[in-house]
Write a structure and sequence with these properties.
Layout (H helix, E strand, L loop, with lengths): L2 E2 L4 H11 L7 H6 L5 H18 L9 E2 L20 E4 L7 E2 L3 E8 L2 E2 L9 E8 L3 E2 L11 E4 L5 E4 L4 E10 L11 E2 L2 E5 L1
Parallel strand pairs: 2-8, 4-13, 6-7
Antiparallel strand pairs: 1-12, 3-5, 5-10, 7-9, 7-11, 11-13
Bound molecules: copper (II) ion.
Length: 195
């Protein structure tokens, strides 16, 4: 699975359930994939999942727990709309991969564009890299700290130095105010091992 839009927490739960195994046809997961065909699922995502689960024995990483995205925040702020075909993904890393420091992370985005923070332009956002984050709020500005890294200049890659061991990574697109789009545009959450 390269990416998914978490429209609701229910979908996140469905995706989690779908990722727990690789057999079967996952009707709930298919629903979450914005109308991709069953054939496409098998050809793309299922194939990738088989490769990651059986090629190197890496279990799928549980998706982060994400609050259900609402079109407006409680403050009245209207969230920027995600393009229906938006897809966010890691270009050079896959779940289960073992890497060395510095860890180069290349951000892939299709269906939308990258704009620096502070720039309001329809169909755009900037990248956020979530490191070792298992839970986040889709209805608030993303925090800025070592776990939530902002690329507000419009960067499309970075280099990280991480402690040896396993870490999770996830990309989330944020608008000019660092607020996730509606619905959320996020990558798959992956686990990497740093030597
Ligand atoms: Cu930001």
């Amino acid at each position: 699975m390269r990416s998914f839009n978490l429209a609701t927490a229910a979908l996140a739960a469905a995706t989690l359930a779908g990722c727990a195994g690789h057999g079967g046809h996952h009707p709930t997961m298919q629903g979450a994939m914005d109308g991709r065909t069953h054939g496409g699922m098998h050809g793309g995502m299922q194939g990738a999942m088989h490769a990651s689960m059986h090629g190197n024995q890496a279990p799928a990483t549980a998706p982060a727990r994400v609050s259900a995205s609402t079109p407006t925040l409680s403050s009245g702020y209207k969230k920027v709309a995600a393009a229906p075909n938006a897809r966010l993904y890691f270009v050079n890393l896959a779940n289960g991969q073992t890497v060395s420091n510095p860890v180069r992370v290349v951000f892939g985005l299709s269906g939308m564009g990258v704009a620096p923070a502070g720039v309001e332009k329809e169909g755009t956002g900037h990248h956020h890299l979530l490191v070792d984050v298992a839970e986040w709020d889709a209805n608030a500005p993303l925090p800025a700290n070592d776990n939530f890294r902002h690329f507000g200049l419009g960067q499309t890659e970075t280099s990280l130095t991480l402690a040896p061991g396993t870490h999770t990574l996830q990309l989330v697109l944020g608008d000019q105010n660092h607020i996730p789009h509606h619905p959320v545009v996020a990558s798959e959450r992956i686990t990497i091992t740093v030597k």
